[in-house]
Amino acid sequence: MKVAVTGKGGVGKTTVAAFLARCWRDLGREVIAVDADPDANLAGTLGYRGPDIVPLANLKALIEERVGAADRWGGFLRMNPRVEDLPERFAIVVDGIRVLVMGTIERGRGGCACAANILLREVLNHLLLGQGQFLVVDMEAGIEHLGRGTAEGVDAMLVVVEPGWASLQTAGRVAELAGHLGIRQVQAIANKICGDEDLAFVRAHLAGLPLLGWLPFDRELESAARAGSLCREGPFYRQVLRIAEQLGG
Ligand SMILES: Nc1ncnc2c1ncn2[C@@H]1O[C@H](COP(=O)(O)OP(=O)(O)OP(=O)(O)O)[C@@H](O)[C@H]1O
Ligand SMILES: [Mg+2]
Fold first, then answer.
1. What is the average pLDDT across 78-107?
2. Residue 113 above 60 pLDDT?
3. Atom of ligand 1 nearest to the CA of 236
4. Exposed end of the chain (fewer CB within 10 Å): N or C?
């Protein structure tokens, strides 16, 4: 099962991706968590406090070998690079969860920023998962990445929304574009819910997007995050666990 977590900036994508990974791991599954946000913070959210992680896109030799001369104008790019060994070789392991940080390639003059995207698309499309393995991707905020089609190969796209117009509007666009990409399972997760009214508001404005589950607003998340851990008790964790199970955990 490959799942991409999307949505407007700040709605809780990284938090949801990290907790989903945690829950699947706690349910005894093997998990690969992919950070596809150039402003990467998934590993840190999972509790990683080591030295800076070098994203795959910054491994020049690897990019050259797999994708081609990404930073030379007119460089030739291979569209289907081998990716099978990437989690084993390059993921860092945080509390039993493999984390792959994709990163981004700076656009040089006339250069191409697509090598990292090709690699990401290939990981999401062609990385073979075994029985009971899960891959969860923390996507970049907004809808631009949908135009690049990097998440085309996921089984499910989860759109995180909060009780407010802006994130619900973005969710509508994400759902439409995901449909164009042929992703069949597109579902919303309502986050930062403070009561029945919040949930009712979200439900009323999902415009046909199915609601997979909802997560409470939880002040403890911040303090736990500062302490470098994910809180594995309490209502937030329990609700994510339910979602993880619904998704096949
Ligand atoms: N249910 C919640 N209750 C309280 N705070 C939350 C909740 N979900 C997320 N947050 C907080 O909201 C902030 C943004 O969350 P997060 O970084 O997961 O969002 P994001 O969508 O990944 O943001 P970005 O678009 O910048 O990548 C964080 O400080 C996080 O701790
Ligand atoms: Mg994020």
1. 88
2. no
3. 1
4. N
Tokens of 10: 């700040």
Q: How many CB atoms lie within 10 A of CB 208?
A: 6
What was the pLDDT predicted at 37? 93
Burial code of 46-60, b = ≥16 C-beta within 10 A, e = fewer? bbbeeeebebbbbee
Count of Cβ atoms closer than 10 Å to residue 115 Cβ: 27
Give per-residue pLDDT as tens, 135-167: 999 999 999 888 888 899 999 999 999 999 999
Which chain residues have CB less than 5 Å from ligand 2, an ion? 13-14
Q: Which ligand 1 atom lies nearest to the CA of residue 219?
A: 4
Q: How many angstroms is it from 205 CA to the middle of ligand 2? A: 23
- The answer to whether the beta carbons of residues 99 and 33 sit under 8 Å apart is yes
Q: List all residues whose CB is within 6 A of at least one atom of ligand 1.
A: 9-15, 37, 141, 191-192, 215, 217-218, 221-222, 225
Which of the listed residues 14, 16, 198 should we mutate to test ligand 1's pocket, taking the one with most ligand atoms within 8 A of CB?
14
Query: Residue 71 burial (CB < 10 Å; 0-12/13-18/19+)?
Result: middle
Atom 15 (ligand 1) nearest CA: 12
- Please give the C-alpha separations between residue 96 and each of 22, 27, 51, in angstroms, as whole numbers: 9, 12, 18
* Residues 223-245 pLDDT 10s: 888 888 898 889 999 999 999 99
Q: Output the pTM of the full model.
A: 0.94
